[in-house]
């Protein structure tokens, strides 16, 4: 499974692609980057640029699913609003591409990668570097966070995906059995 992990932000939006499936719990980095916009541009221009870059990543890496860090509601309302706008772009791009979006809270992401939901950015970066076998820690933190979001889904989402597929298969089997009566 190929996962596009997104750490949404209007000034810095972390994007990462990870592959899983080469063995239980194994995950590999395919690409990582940060899309930056400047506050000198209008919000609309910044969002359009982010949408274009997101589309490039979707076309280039052809993910099976998108994993998005869920919006953390903090005290700074303008930041919440612009981050929500970027999250909306991700959902729009996914819908246009026929992809599912799975959202994880920052606590869920941290817990899946480090073992604790209270890990700081340095711990997340360290564990992502270790888990993915990288020679260098991804920089800036938005890049490491996007990788962590991708790894989170690769590890947590696979089980959920398998359970959903098994449930759908069982529903189809029961429907077929009912129709045969």
TrEMBL record:
Cofactor note (record): Binds 2 Mg(2+) ion per subunit.
Positions of Mg(2+) 2 binding: 69
Enzyme Commission number(s) from the entry: 3.1.21.10
Compartments (UniProt record): Cytoplasm
Keywords: Cytoplasm, DNA damage, DNA recombination, DNA repair, DNA-binding, Endonuclease, Hydrolase, Magnesium, Metal-binding, Nuclease
Subunit organization: Homodimer which binds Holliday junction (HJ) DNA. The HJ becomes 2-fold symmetrical on binding to RuvC with unstacked arms; it has a different conformation from HJ DNA in complex with RuvA. In the full resolvosome a probable DNA-RuvA(4)-RuvB(12)-RuvC(2) complex forms which resolves the HJ.
Name recorded for this polypeptide: Crossover junction endodeoxyribonuclease RuvC
